[in-house]
Design brief:
Layout lengths: L11 E2 L9 H5 L10 H17 L7 E7 L2 H12 L5 E6 L2 H12 L3 E6 L8 H10 L5 E5 L1 E2 L4 E2 L2 H10 L3 E5 L11 H4 L3 E5 L10 E7 H4 L13 H10 L10 H17 L1 H22 L15 E5 L8 H10 L2 E2 L1 E2 L7 E5 L6 H14 L7
Helix pairs in contact: 2-10, 5-6, 10-11, 11-13
The chain binds pyridoxal-5'-phosphate.
GO biological process, one term: organic phosphonate catabolic process
Keywords: Aminotransferase, Pyridoxal phosphate, Pyruvate, Transferase
EC number: 2.6.1.37
Length: 374
């Protein structure tokens, strides 16, 4: 390859995705593909089958569908394609992404009940159980695994147990956790899990994917409320066409995704990536606490993905200036998303290691301009 100019990243993205990706992931996009040629379709099939392998799922009972668009398109595709007309969705929310699932249901005129635990709390299992026991019209339950709004990790094992005991279909938005946190899809009883290319798999943005129970997906023929987001039809086309998409597919993004999956394997799979992320997050939180920052959530609620810190209670503190100070030092962080609290977020997923977190802490120390004399 003869490339004159390969730009370097001027800063690390400490965001929940798109995130900093490896050079090889970016370089893998430097050729063009024909959407219906077998060279490309076989990459799609490899990626689909790899998604089942890393989830320890049997291809006889589980399947995957890739869907164009950002992660929300895949969430909307599931909600709009798996709910029968008479169905009712219970959404367990504790942040903006849970709320978004309920909003999708409202847009699609799907009956929906919302149990909002508040941004700082987990859902009470007895309450979930009594809602389900008291309303037999609820057919599906949806929850977010890692609520990226705060960094809260919801207990999908315990919630799944309640959902299965009550015999409802279980939908999990694992957008910001799949690939970075082990998820036992089969034992938890997840029927549809949703994630996207540009989070813990460490690919680039452009499509999302659904890991689903084949027998559940088979029930969805003709249910979709949208043509382009018809999950069942997309699945049929991919199965029958051996990796074909219905409409233009993000070819370069899929090729990069395949490379990202190879790198996930080389790292040691999801358990090894989970360890790295957990160490990143510990390094981050310990360092920030030493500088006087406090986390919004208690440690026991925390995911190893993204952390919310309370803004310093100091006259003259301004997020935008803090952000810019960090950016010139090579780090991009994220604004807060919780109402009622002044805060900011720092992600630790992507091509990021504990030594990057150490370097970040040094830069944060230098960027605390509100502490400097004068
Ligand atoms: C990123 C994310 C999404 C999808 O967001 P997009 O901007 O559409 O990619 C959905 N749910 C969660 C929990 C997320 O972190």
């Amino acid at each position: 390859m003869n490339i004159k100019y390969l730009p370097e990243n001027p800063y690390l993205l400490l965001t929940p995705g798109p995130l900093s990706t490896s050079k090889a992931v970016k370089a893998s996009m430097l050729r063009d593909w024909c959407t219906w040629d077998e060279d490309y379709n076989s990459i799609v099939q490899q990626a689909r089958s790899e998604l089942l392998t890393i989830s320890n799922l049997d291809a006889k009972r589980y399947t995957t569908v890739l869907m164009q668009g950002s992660g929300t398109f895949s969430v909307e595709s599931v909600i709009g394609s798996v709910m029968p007309e008479s169905g009712k969705l219970l959404v367990l929310a504790n942040g903006a992404y849970g709320q978004r699932i309920a909003e999708i249901a409202r847009y699609l005129k799907i009956q929906c009940e919302l149990y909002d635990a508040g941004d700082l709390e987990r859902h009470q299992l007895e309450k979930v159980n009594s809602i389900l026991a008291g309303d037999s019209s609820i057919s599906h339950v949806a929850v977010v695994h890692c609520e990226t709004t705060t960094g809260m990790l919801n207990d999908i094992e315990a919630i799944g147990e309640v959902v299965k005991k009550n015999r409802r279909t279980f939908i999990v938005d694992a957008m910001s956790s799949f690939g970075g946190i082990p998820i036992d899809v089969e034992n938890i009883g997840i029927d549809f899990l949703i994630s996207s290319a540009n989070k813990c798999i460490q690919g680039v943005p452009g499509f999302g994917f659904v890991v689903g129970k084949t027998s559940e997906l088979e029930k969805c023929d003709g249910l979709a409320r949208s043509l382009s987001l018809d999950l069942f039809d997309q699945w049929k086309t991919m199965e029958e066409g051996h990796g074909k998409w219905r409409f233009t597919s993000p070819t370069h993004v899929v090729r990069a995704f395949r490379q990202a999956l190879i790198e996930l394997n080389t790292e040691g799979g999801i358990p090894a990536r989970f360890q790295r992320y957990a160490e990143n997050q510990r390094t981050l939180v310990n360092g920030m606490r030493k500088l006087g920052f406090e986390t919004l959530l208690p440690d026991e609620f925390h995911s190893p993905i993204i952390t919310t810190f309370l803004s310093p209670n100091a006259a003259g503190y301004d997020f935008v200036r803090f952000y810019k100070e960090l950016k010139v030092r090579g780090f991009v962080i994220y604004p807060g998303k919780v109402t009622n609290y002044q805060c900011f977020r720092i992600g630790n997923i992507g091509e990021v290691r504990p030594n990057d977190m150490e370097a970040l802490i040094s830069s944060v120390r230098e960027s605390m301009y509100w502490k400097l004399p004068g």
